Amino acid sequence: MPTPAENITFPPVTRAAGRGGPFPAEPEAAECGSASSSSRRVTRDRMKKSINCFCKRPDALVRLVCFPWAGGGSIHYARWGSLLNSSVEVYSVKLPGREGRAKEPFLMDMQQVVDEVVSALLPELREKPFALFGHSFGAMASFATADHLKRVHGLEPVHLFVSGASAPHQRRGLCPLLRHPVPESSIILHTVTLAVPATAQLTPNGGSEARLCATKRSDLTDEEFLNWLTSIGGTPPEILTNQEVLKLFLPVLKADLSVVENYRYLKPERSILSCPVTCFDGTQDIPHDLQAWKDISSGEFTIKMLPGSHFYLKDPTNEKILLDYITRYLETAEMDYMK
User: Fold this and answer.
1) Euclidean distance between CA atoms 273 and 121, whole angstroms
2) pLDDT for 297-318, tens place per residue?
3) Phi and psi at residue 174, to the nearest 5°
4) Which residues are CB-neighbours of 151 under 8 A, at least 6 positions away?
5) Tell me, what's the pLDDT at 76?
6) CB 62, CB 159: distance < 8 Å
7) What one-character-per-residue DSSP string does 71-95 give?
8) Is 136 annotated as catalytic?
9) 66 compared with 201, residue with greater pLDDT
10) Model's pTM, two decimal places?
11) Helices 243-261 and 206-213, interaxial angle, to 10°?
């Protein structure tokens, strides 16, 4: 079973932005005073701040944009760039409040998450085909980004890969992040049981409503949040007693929980997307409503189960299976695009 401790973002290792750093230093372009030059510079700066790309492949045929799980950073996915073949370039989203952006304020809602990503990547996404991947909180963020890109910019991923989460509108009263069917009196979020007023209806459109009505753990003080974290168990004592780690862990996790707690999305009357959608999940994780993801796209729909609990994707064997699967689908998308 997943524990909140698995989502910890550890203190960033400071590295110079020159050789050997995650973003090699680029020579500054000469000032020419043109608006286009200034715009390109702003976009480039946003890219460096918001995206980790350990293995730059300008000649890649497709880009894979990866979104972190709740409280997570960008490093886990950024390393995928060296594991996938040369036709795929991996962009790992780096949100404020963690890693090298630890001093920046957290994003307050899902639209801010979407705006952060789109403002940094829009020129890149217009340039060549792209796919999106997200696990848990990242699944919500990846879908919200895909929805925005389609509605506002007429862009669509060649594939949407989601993992460890029910669909955002959820059917049968399932929490959109995780978990299984529950009574109308509660929903479960990241092993959190949240009380829901009796008036909240867990209808096909009721998932968002129930989530909005629920008691918000993210509003608790750090002391109250830590007491609750201790009471539910599953977090190693050495984490709970390490004040330096807690100073990083609690604010990031609470901020991401707040984004999800306030994310509202109703079941669409018709499919928004037309791209293929693949759902990954761990066989030992508490079940999610994966079938509900079929509602958001008219494209091919696939569910792929792998052994393990919520963070099944951290297992090296599972990671290889997952990456081989993603590669196979992206290669097919590349061939279709080039026809």
Assistant:
1) 19
2) 999 999 999 998 888 998 999 9
3) -95, 140
4) 272
5) 93
6) no
7) T--SHHHHGGGGTS-TTEEEEEE--
8) yes
9) 66
10) 0.75
11) 130
Residue type, 108: M
Tell me how far apart the alpha carbons of residues 228 and 232 are, in angstroms, rounded to a whole number.
Answer: 6
Pairing of strands 192-195, 186-189: antiparallel
Residue that is written with structure tokens 């909005």 in the block: 212
Total residues found in the chain within this entry: 339
d(CA 332, CA 303): 18
62: three-class secondary structure by DSSP: strand
Residue 305 forms beta bridges with which residues? Answer: 281
Cβ contacts of 126 within 8 Å, gap of 6 or more: 153, 155
pLDDT band at 320 (very low <50, low <70, confident <90, very high): very high
Q: Is 310 a catalytic residue?
A: yes
**CA proximity to 125, closest of 152, 151, 157, 94:** 157
Beta pairing partners, 278: 161, 302
**Which is more confidently placed, 148 or 197?**
148
- Token pair listed for 156: 């669509």
User: Considering 50, 74, 92, 136, which one is annotated as catalytic?
Assistant: 136
Tell me the C-alpha distance between 332 and 75, whole Å: 27
List b or e across 14-36, with b for residues whose CB sees 16 or more CB atoms inside 10 angstroms.
Answer: eeeeeeeebbeeeeeeeeeeeee
Which bin fits 263, alpha (ψ -120 to 50), beta or left (φ > 0)? Answer: beta
Contact 106, 254 (CB under 8 A): no
Per-residue tokens: 209 = 């409503």
